[in-house]
Write a structure and sequence with these properties.
Blueprint: E1 5-7, E2 10-11, H1 19-33, E3 59-67, H2 79-96, E4 100-110, H3 116-130, E5 134-141, E6 146-154, E7 177-180, H4 186-195, H5 214-221, H6 227-235, E8 240-243, H7 248-259, E9 262-265, H8 276-281, E10 288-292, H9 295-304, E11 311-317, E12 323-325, E13 328-329
Parallel strand pairs: 4-5, 9-12
Antiparallel strand pairs: 1-2, 3-6, 4-6, 7-10, 7-11, 8-10, 9-11, 12-13
Helix pairs in contact: 1-3, 2-3, 2-6, 4-5
Length: 340
């Protein structure tokens, strides 16, 4: 998080307030969320780059971003919600590979009307929950709020069957049981409920409008990456996983295509207050789809870890790339960006 210039002799438009004073405030917030400043031998926010100790073995690298007006609507989500969500959706990719987040880099572009301190509040809370410090990033003025997060993750020791690599979309095989880590559709249902209420200003968007089911609204505003579930599944012998960001059918389709298997879905767990349509195509649930050849071991491991029981939704078949729902070809559903 250091100042720079856009072009020769052209200063970059500053963020609200003195840039370096803002950085100092955010650094204090992020260090507090991490339980203190950088440990001896590391450098976090304040230099040209962060300097951290890497764990032994391979690393997991992921990045994602949340853009106001595309991924979130500031009439129903606060800037703190956006910061929280940006961290969680990025860390969710590490969870899907059975890993753990080690360090976060967070960059924010925002118009003058958005409080950077409020964005940082959400970032810090999410970072605390996932156990990964924010060690750097960047700040800029911009026409809309954009929060970009990069995560450096790692894998814990080998799984119980000796597997040392991450879970991958391409790992599923015919005959594997397919599970999800929780009921689906809450985020889409929450957004629908919020949109049915009068919009709030950005300053009051964090307050739930009357009549909105709080649990559904929270599912949309503040999803939680399933880190324990992903790590437990990997160590219990699972072969493949993907997080549900685009919708169950879309993401199961990505896994089926990558693994060159079919997936026959016979059961879809629907979150309370959501519809089957929400569960199949709503997206942004950030639960995990897990494929495993040892379903009993998966269920036992989740119980031993004190996690919610995984929900079996079907099995992998030999119909490469084909997803079936109750025996019929699954309908097209889910989110897809339209790029230039």
């Amino acid at each position: 998080m250091a100042g720079d210039r856009v072009g020769a002799g052209t200063p970059r438009q500053s963020v609200v307030g003195d840039e370096f004073a803002v950085i100092d405030r955010l650094r204090a917030r992020f260090e507090a969320a991490a339980g203190g400043g950088a440990p001896a031998g590391e450098v976090w926010i304040g230099d040209d780059a962060a300097w951290v100790r890497a764990p032994s073995g391979s690393l997991l690298l992921a990045t994602d971003l949340v853009v106001a007006g595309v991924h979130v609507d500031l009439r129903w989500c606060s800037p703190a919600d956006v910061g929280f969500k940006a961290v969680m959706v990025t860390v969710s990719d590490v969870a899907a590979m059975g890993g753990r987040p080690g360090h976060l880099l967070v960059s924010v572009a925002a118009p003058a009307s958005v409080s950077l301190d409020e964005v940082a509040e959400g970032v810090a809370e999410a970072a605390r929950l996932v156990g990964a410090p924010v060690v750097g990033g960047d700040l800029s003025a911009g026409p809309v709020l954009v929060v970009s997060v990069a995560v450096v993750g790692f894998l814990e020791p080998a799984s119980t069957d000796g597997t040392v690599g991450p879970l991958q979309r391409a790992g599923a095989r015919p005959g594997d049981a397919v599970y999800v880590t929780g009921p689906l559709g809450a985020s889409a249902a929450g957004l629908a409920r919020l949109r049915a209420e009068p919009p709030s200003s950005p300053a009051t968007a964090s307050v739930l409008p009357d009549g909105v089911d709080a649990a559904l609204a929270v599912a949309h505003r503040r999803p939680v990456a399933r880190l324990e579930e992903g790590s437990t599944a990997r160590r219990a012998g699972a072969r493949a996983a993907i997080d549900i960001s685009d919708g169950l059918l879309a993401d199961v389709g990505h896994l089926a295509e990558a693994s060159q298997v079919g997936v026959a879905i016979s059961d879809v767990p629907v979150a309370a207050g959501a519809t089957l349509t929400d569960a199949l195509g709503g997206g942004e649930d950030y639960e995990l789809v897990v494929s495993t050849p040892v379903p009993d071991r998966l269920e036992t491991a989740f119980a031993a870890a004190g996690l919610r029981a995984p929900i079996r939704i079907g099995e992998c078949t030999t119909e490469a790339g084909v997803v079936r729902l109750d025996g019929q070809p699954a309908p097209a559903a889910g989110w897809r960006h339209r790029l230039g």
